[in-house]
Write a structure and sequence with these properties.
151 residues; alpha+beta; YbaK protein; 4 helices; 32% strand
């Protein structure tokens, strides 16, 4: 699938969803948080990516169920994220990831006509539609992977 939108370089950082939403002037929910997890099972470590709406939290208790993989879900450190994805935390893009990584996409992102993702750097983002991101990443779409933050 061809994606015709351009990468946007921001003056301010887009390291967090809130930073990106302020810099772009869009709702924080329209920002894609690309989160990396590892499922540990019998000494085996399976990397997983969750694409979560910026105004939601990832429900890590659902990751194993959605992917039908048993094990304990853990957040890796920054060096491990870079080793897995090739990107540094704050700039992890949902595209350009190794093909063997399972990707789950939060259905809450579909609320927006345009969503914004990191483009490999803390000051670079790109716009796309929900369907474009899903097609480019071949992500499994889930209604269960995110929860609203508690006030």
């Amino acid at each position: 699938m061809g994606h015709t939108e351009q990468v946007v370089e921001l003056t301010d950082t887009a390291r967090s969803a809130l930073d990106a939403s302020k810099a772009l002037g869009v709702p924080v929910g329209a920002i894609v948080k690309t989160l990396i997890f590892i499922i540990q099972n019998d000494g085996e470590a399976t990397p997983i990516v969750c694409l979560i709406s910026g105004d939601m939290l990832c429900d890590t208790s659902q990751i194993s169920q959605v992917l039908n993989i048993d094990g304990k879900v853990k957040r890796p450190d920054a060096d491990t994220v870079k080793d897995i994805t090739g990107y540094s935390i704050g700039g992890v893009s949902p595209i350009g990831l190794p093909e063997n990584i399972g990707i789950i996409m939060d259905s809450a992102l579909a609320r927006f006509d345009k969503i914004w993702s990191a483009a490999g750097h803390t000051h670079c983002v790109f716009p796309a539609t929900f369907n474009q991101i899903q097609e480019m990443t071949n992500a499994i779409v889930s209604d269960d992977i995110s929860i609203e933050p508690k006030e």
